[in-house]
Fold each of these.
Amino acid sequence: DQQVKQNSPSLSVQEGRISILNCDYTNSMFDYFLWYKKYPAEGPTFLISISSIKDKNEDGRFTVFLNKSAKHLSLHIVPSQPGDSAVYFCAAPYNQFYFGTGTSLTVIP
Amino acid sequence: KAGVTQTPRYLIKTRGQQVTLSCSPISGHRSVSWYQQTPGQGLQFLFEYFSETQRNKGNFPGRFSGRQFSNSRSEMNVSTLELGDSALYLCASSLDGRAGAYNEQFFGPGTRLTVL
């Protein structure tokens, strides 16, 4: 039962443009979300988070938006850089951490 | 501060064998969680240990087991290996990992297990 879903397995974006990664969830009890970034041969590293009391959280080039009514969140990266090429996971902690299946982002120089 | 370490980094086994993976959390972290990552499945939660007790368990068969020692180091064991067990096994540590707690998890680099 995949309670956190990332329906786009991959995304390619030109350097300097915006990358938008999407995540949907099914459990209305989730009230906190995190994004992790993973490079090959490394473990995921925390990127940004958002609480359900907010609909937006920004940290430099990274912004996460939360639409609770749609049970949807998105991660915006502006401007995208080649070093952003990685797999991105959204996650929701609720008794355990529920992770999405990941989106592989490729930023083309 | 040293990060989460996992040993070994790579492992090749054959079907029917068993394997033990090790994870050393960040100093002071008492919660250790294990995940299986396979293509298309994302990170699937295996179990979480806190103070030597399994506190949460995912939907994996009983062939997957674990334990945690008094120094918070954790081991994961898979018995009677199957081809489908080939995956990257990640462990993550957090301060206390309380259910619903909002602290981050810090991941190790993973152990790549290949079952032939």
Amino acid sequence: GNSVTQMEGPVTLSEEAFLTINCTYTATGYPSLFWYVQYPGEGLQLLLKATKADDKGSNKGFEATYRKETTSFHLEKGSVQVSDSAVYFCALSVINTGNQFYFGTGTSLTVIP
Amino acid sequence: GAVVSQHPSWVICKSGTSVKIECRSLDFQATTMFWYRQFPKQSLMLMATSNEGSKATYEQGVEKDKFLINHASLTLSTLTVTSAHPEDSSFYICSAQSSGFHEQYFGPGTRLTVT
């Protein structure tokens, strides 16, 4: 089946530290992979995506590379800011399952000054 | 970019009453809309998928008579929680997808509190 396993949090980092949030997946078809961010009290916002193997999604200093060989899509940022504090969700979608999204459990990130 | 709105953003209702939540795609036609439920500090749980003009498909364990979904137009879907109980209190999020596009666009969510 389709599923996403995401690194458990919470994660607390100092400002300007390096961030990695691990995400691995299982999929029956050819998935597209996504990272969404949820700020307190708000809905989900698309952070970045990759639709095929070896694609790199990037946005606002965040990056993730679609690794088919390791079935991973780890989120990285070289220097986090206080404003990056949020919950991050890894997700996949496979067209042949009606575009249903499968979400990881979310990783809470707190960045302290 | 594509914008999805939800109304209301929060609602408090008494046990036994019904409450309707609207989800609108503001600048694109949403052939498919999804409704999710999110408990505190947990991930999103897909409740149902609705296609414009047809009946919604509910996920296993979701009561279709309790959570009524209507997708009457290409820009509007509604979720009605009937005979609400305190255990229905949650954060409800919708998302919308346009035909031919893989990406889903999420609404800001509606916080429902049943007293």
